[in-house]
C-alpha cells in the first residue's frame, strides 16, 4: 500500500507524528503542498483544516480514499484530531471502507473548475448588484438581482451556503443547492435540484468572478454564461461513524 501524506505548513509537527505512525504499516511519501501526483497513491492522508482539504482535492481528478487529521477550527471533513488519530487511522487502513461524495464542476471560458463545497458567482465590484438568469435543463427557474449566487453540494451545504441562509442537506444525497447572496428581493427561497441536472447561469450588468471553494477563480464579462453540473470525479473519504450526527454537532458549535 502506498500512502501520500499532505500537510499544512503550520501543522508540520503533527504531520511528523503521523508520518512516523504510517511508516510502521506502509510506504509513505510526504508533500507540503497539493500536486497531481497524489492520484497515483492508494491512500491520501491530509493533516490540516477544511481549507487544506479543499486545496488538496482541487488538484486531483481521481481522489484516493482520504483520511483527515484535523488541526483547524471546524473540521467538517475530519476523521480524527492530533490527539487521537492513531487508532482511527489504523482501523481505516485495515478496513479500506470509504464513501464517495459528489463534487461540482463549472464550465466557464473553456476552463473547468471543480469544487467539493460550492461554486460561487459573485460581483466583481463590491456593493454593486448582478442580475442572474438561472435555467435548469433548459427551463428558466429564476431571475434575480443579488450580490452573487451559490451552487452548493450537499456536503458543502454547511459552508458558504449555510452562512447565506441556505438549507443543510444530507451529505449522502446527490443534489445541487442554489442560494443567492444578499438578494434584492423579499421572501426569496433557495432551490434544491437533482444532481443529474445541468444549470446555466447568465450574468448581466457588470463583471463577475466565478470561484471554486474559495480557491480558484475566473473573471467573466456581462452576458457570459456559467454551466454548473455534477462532476464525474467524486471525493472519497474513509467512513465516519455517525457522520450526520457529528456534522450537526459541529454546525451547532458555530452558533
Describe this structure in words.
By secondary structure, the protein is an alpha+beta fold. The protein has two domains: 2-101 and 234-254, 3-Layer(aba) Sandwich (Rossmann fold), CATH 3.40.50; 104-230, Probable inorganic polyphosphate/atp-NAD kinase, domain 2 (Tumour Suppressor Smad4, Sandwich). It contains five helices and 19 strands. It has helices spanning 12-22, 50-58, 85-95, 160-163, 243-254, and strands at 2-7, 27-31, 43-48, 66-70, 80-81, 98-101, 104-108, 111-115, 118-123, 130-136, 139-146, 148-152, 175-181, 191-194, 199-204, 208-212, 216-220, 225-230, 235-238. It has a six-stranded antiparallel sheet, with no helix packed on it. A six-stranded antiparallel sheet has the order 14-13-12-9-16-17, with no helix packed on it. A five-stranded parallel sheet has the order 2-1-3-4-5, with helices on both faces. The model has no long low-confidence stretch (mean pLDDT 95). It is found in: Cytoplasm. NAD(+) binds at residues 50-51, 55, 117-118, 128, 145, 147, 155, 158-163, 215. Its EC number is 2.7.1.23. Involved in the regulation of the intracellular balance of NAD and NADP, and is a key enzyme in the biosynthesis of NADP. Catalyzes specifically the phosphorylation on 2'-hydroxyl of the adenosine moiety of NAD to yield NADP. Keywords: ATP-binding, Cytoplasm, Kinase, NAD, NADP, Nucleotide-binding, Transferase.
Amino acid at each position: 500500500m502506498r500512502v501520500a501524506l499532505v500537510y499544512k505548513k503550520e501543522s508540520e509537527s503533527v504531520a511528523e507524528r503521523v508520518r512516523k505512525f504510517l511508516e510502521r504499516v506502509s510506504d509513505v511519501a510526504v508533500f507540503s503542498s497539493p500536486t497531481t501526483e497524489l492520484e497515483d497513491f492508494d491512500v491520501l492522508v491530509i493533516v490540516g483544516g477544511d481549507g487544506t482539504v479543499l486545496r488538496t482535492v482541487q488538484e486531483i481528478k481521481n481522489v484516493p480514499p482520504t483520511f483527515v487529521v484535523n488541526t483547524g477550527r471546524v473540521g467538517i471533513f475530519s476523521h480524527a484530531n492530533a490527539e487521537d488519530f492513531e487508532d482511527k487511522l489504523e482501523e481505516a487502513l485495515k478496513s479500506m471502507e470509504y464513501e464517495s461524495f459528489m463534487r461540482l464542476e463549472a464550465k466557464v471560458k473553456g476552463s473547468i473548475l471543480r469544487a467539493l463545497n460550492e461554486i460561487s458567482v459573485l460581483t466583481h465590484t463590491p456593493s454593486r448588484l448582478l442580475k442572474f438568469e438561472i435555467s435548469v435543463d433548459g427551463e428558466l427557474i429564476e431571475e434575480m438581482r443579488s450580490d452573487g449566487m451559490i451552487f452548493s453540494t450537499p456536503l458543502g451545504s454547511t459552508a458558504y451556503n449555510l452562512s447565506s441562509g441556505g438549507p443543510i442537506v444530507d451529505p449522502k444525497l446527490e443534489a445541487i443547492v442554489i442560494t443567492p447572496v444578499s438578494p434584492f428581493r423579499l421572501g426569496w427561497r433557495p432551490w434544491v435540484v437533482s444532481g443529474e441536472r445541468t444549470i446555466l447561469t447568465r450574468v448581466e450588468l457588470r463583471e463577475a468572478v466565478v470561484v471554486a471553494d474559495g480557491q480558484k477563480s475566473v473573471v467573466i464579462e456581462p452576458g457570459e454564461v456559467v454551466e454548473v453540473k455534477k462532476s464525474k470525479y467524486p471525493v472519497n473519504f474513509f467512513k465516519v461513524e455517525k457522520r450526520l450526527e457529528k456534522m450537526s454537532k459541529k454546525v451547532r458549535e458555530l452558533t
